[in-house]
Amino acid sequence: MRTYRIAAIPADGIGPEVIGAGLEVLDALATRSGQFALQVETHDWGSARYRRIGAMMPEDGLAQLKSADAIFFGAVGAPDIPDHITLWGLRLPICQGFDQYANVRPTRIFPGVESKLRDVGPGDLDWLIIRENSEGEYAGHGGRAHRGLPEEVATETAIFTRVGVERIMRYAFERARARPRKLLTVVTKSNAQRHGMVFWDEIAALVAADYPDVTWDKELVDAMTMRMVGKPRSIDTVVATNLHADILSDLAAALAGSVGLAPTGNIDPQRRFPSMFEPIHGSAFDITGKGIANPVATFWTASMMLEHLGEPKAAAALMTAIEQVCAAGILTPDIGGTATTRDVTRAVCDAIRGANA
Ligand code: IPM
Ligand code: MG
Q: Is residue 240, in this structure, part of any structural domain at all?
């Protein structure tokens, strides 16, 4: 029996509600399989800690997480604290400190969930967006001068390094190769951004030579939004910069029904550090404490975590359970249902217990 060490950081807003639900489901899976166990250590880091002692996490936070096999993260953000403090105080230091340079964002339409696209149902849309997660437009490079004066200036410089672009490109080609269609779209804006984005195109072509079995094409990011809406079946795996993929993945989540369904993994493909898995919806203060948060994004996130840990059977069993529950119409209000977080969690746990896997 393998035991995996999971560091849970539920943090803010609906984070504790969905992570609690996710841990319940993981527990049901572990019990069902009898092959693995999870040893969960929960950290009470986040905005409440910031209000109490002025820091989102302890100074040795990364050292505390380092020996975990994976990090299971809820959400950060609070209405009374500026976003850049909560984000740069907890989530980004983990992503950057553990060099989780690949952000993986799958999108699918679940049975029973209505896509925002007409005539598109389960099976028609199965995307994997790979977001560069360590540099690009979110490198934090830039500054401000002459504050408050008429001549004030601010710069926000995107950083693209050969190492950074090449490693995300290789990762994307690998992921595309592992999927049935072996199809990759490289997204840039190289018509207008003639330095960094042309560099992306060049590196894409170089890396592509090592993957002759993967079919690839290029798309400009603006045209990509239209293609996602107009020709969703023409897309499989997508790789894009930090900013472009941030935007495209929100569009993808909305097209598939709701951001309440969208998972993500912040991955260190070299496995030098623990990778971090989180739902992408954020803290959602408007529904915090109401018990109606959609836990499906977190369940899918948990499935990605199991896959990463090397438990593909449990990962697949969880996806099957989610699909059964969605198909049965047990849906939270964000996707048109009346079920609560508890109802969905209980139904998914029941589906897992009833499964033969
Ligand atoms: C996401 C989120 C974050 C991001 C925000 C909160 C900075 O939108 O995970 O996509 O862009 O990284
Ligand atoms: Mg985003």
A: yes
